[in-house]
Amino acid sequence: MKKILFSFVALLFATLSYAQIEGKWKTIDDETGQAKSIVEIFKKSDGKYYGKVTQLLIKPQHANCIDCKDDRKNQPILGMEVIRGMKKEGKEFTGGTITDPKTGKTYKCNITRDGDKLNVRGYVGFSLIGRTQIWHAVK
User: Which keywords has UniProt assigned to this entry (predicted)?
Assistant: First the structure.
């Protein structure tokens, strides 16, 4: 009986954590394959998800986002909110944006979780026109 109960609790926990994106994630540059930073994703009181850079793993060319067009212009990349306004819709997180501090460009964003990995897709217009990065959970 204990084994069945333990199995049920473990399965329930795995199912609940599978669809969550909250936590720390190591970002991997899709062009170079290098780990770039650690982004912490969290839920705000508005019920939406946001992510900020908590650690830089490689030194960027500029410490500030010099090409950003919004309130992040000339702000430090470390501590910058790069993901904004994501909503959970089924197994996917959508409706928000992601900003690339290197270029200052902001894209629409979709995030899905696959075990200990996040598929983070930034795009302009349609989701088909964009690129995906794989982020890894930080333990």
Answer: Signal
Is residue 104 situated within a structural domain? Answer: yes
Q: Which residues of 125-137 are buried (b: 16+ CB within 10 A; e: fewer)?
A: eeeeeeeebebee
Distance between CA atoms of 37 and 89, rounded to whole angstroms?
A: 27
Expressed as residue numbers, the domain containing 64 is: 21-137
Confidence at 6, pLDDT banded by 50, 70, 90: very low
Whether 10 is covered by a domain: the verdict is no
**Distance from C-alpha of 124 to C-alpha of 72, rounded to nearest angstrom:** 20
**CA–CA dist 110, 2 (Å, integer):** 40
pTM attached to this predicted model: 0.84
CATH number at residue 25: 2.40.128.520
